[in-house]
Amino acid sequence: MTSLAPWRQVLARSLHRNRALIYARYFQLATVRADGRPANRTVVFRGFLPESNQIAMITDRRSQKIEQIERNAKAEICWYFPKTREQFRLAGTLYIVDAGHLNESWQRAYHETWQKLSEAARAQFYGIAPSQPLAELIETEPKADSDAIPESFRLLVFEPKELDYLDLKTHPHDHHYHWLDESGEWQAEALTP
Amino acid sequence: MTSLAPWRQVLARSLHRNRALIYARYFQLATVRADGRPANRTVVFRGFLPESNQIAMITDRRSQKIEQIERNAKAEICWYFPKTREQFRLAGTLYIVDAGHLNESWQRAYHETWQKLSEAARAQFYGIAPSQPLAELIETEPKADSDAIPESFRLLVFEPKELDYLDLKTHPHDHHYHWLDESGEWQAEALTP
User: Fold this and answer.
1) Label partner for A131 (CA 20 to 30 A): which of A6, B120, B124, B183?
2) Chains A, B: CB contacts under 8 A, how many?
3) What is the full per-residue pLDDT of chain A (193 aa) written as tens digits?
4) Which residues of A touch B76 (CB under 8 A)?
């Protein structure tokens, strides 16, 4: 268990200052494909896990990113805040969490994240598998008649190990590199813009 | 020489419809690091190369992405348009272009892109190397007393080979996959949302 990172508050403040923009809660998540090419897509921020630096996202078990993460769990989030003109580049590791995950606090987060989802967000997990050719026969997830979480639902937990922070509003730009050292403490140094 | 892609107009229209947002001209560029981890950062769109699907960006020879691209030129652009709620995921190859590049039209684009830059954008190529520890001795690029382009300036040309297009404003979401086939023609198919 690592301590709350010093940059955690900076990120929380950026989220607050950009709260008028719904899309300030979206970021771009890069992973690596089986053939060594990068993949990159927009993902919705689903909050921090309690008392941690861990970032929650959701995805469909049947999505391409699950395959990619199972092979190479390293990821980089690029999060640009348009109003405050700040960029957070967070490098770290992704963990796929399902209903039976051994980590109990992650299992709890899995359930709580589902509970907080809108009906529209939930619907996509009952429906047809994503990114399949429309012309072909497609796998479907039967709509449950209870409140049960559909089998296709996955929580993704991102554990940051490095942060490259850039503030484009300052001149010269404030640019800092933060990293988790061997003892689990966050270190930081100033970089040239 | 491949033909103008059918999606090229869709992207041009998105740029136009989102033109009130300066940051709609920024996208996230993912590459792969030497150690196999992904890298992801915000980059400014510098236009299409004439009569092509190629996307121009600029960077500093001394930046980390140059090292990454020299090793693995595969990249994925994730471009989210906030106003129209569209996402373009463009997979393809990056080419590093300097003043002496063999491709004449790229060499011309190299010069023209520099000419169009603001003084502020130009200044960063004369200055200290980017992303270096502030505390250490840092490499500097001497300010030229002529209009010569500084040696650190590089044009990046991105050649898209695939596009995953998602329109979040339509219900169900319009989702299409486009790819360049062996004969250099763009193909497309509809996907599930």
Assistant:
1) B183
2) 141
3) 557 999 999 999 999 999 999 999 999 999 999 999 999 999 999 999 999 999 999 999 999 999 999 999 999 999 999 999 999 999 999 999 999 999 999 999 999 999 999 998 998 898 788 999 888 755 566 665 557 899 999 999 999 999 999 999 998 899 999 999 999 999 999 999 9
4) 30, 37-40
Q: What share of chain A is helix, strand, coil (3-state, %, to 5)?
A: 25, 35, 40
Specify the CATH architecture of the domain B7-130+139-190: Roll (2.30)
Q: What predicted TM-score, i.e. pTM, was given to this entire model?
A: 0.96
Chain A residue with minimum CA distance to B29: A40
Between B130, B189, B193, which is nearest A133 by CB? B189
Q: Distances from the Cα of A29 to the Cαs of A53, A76, A124, in angstroms?
A: 16, 6, 20
d(CA A189, CA A187): 7
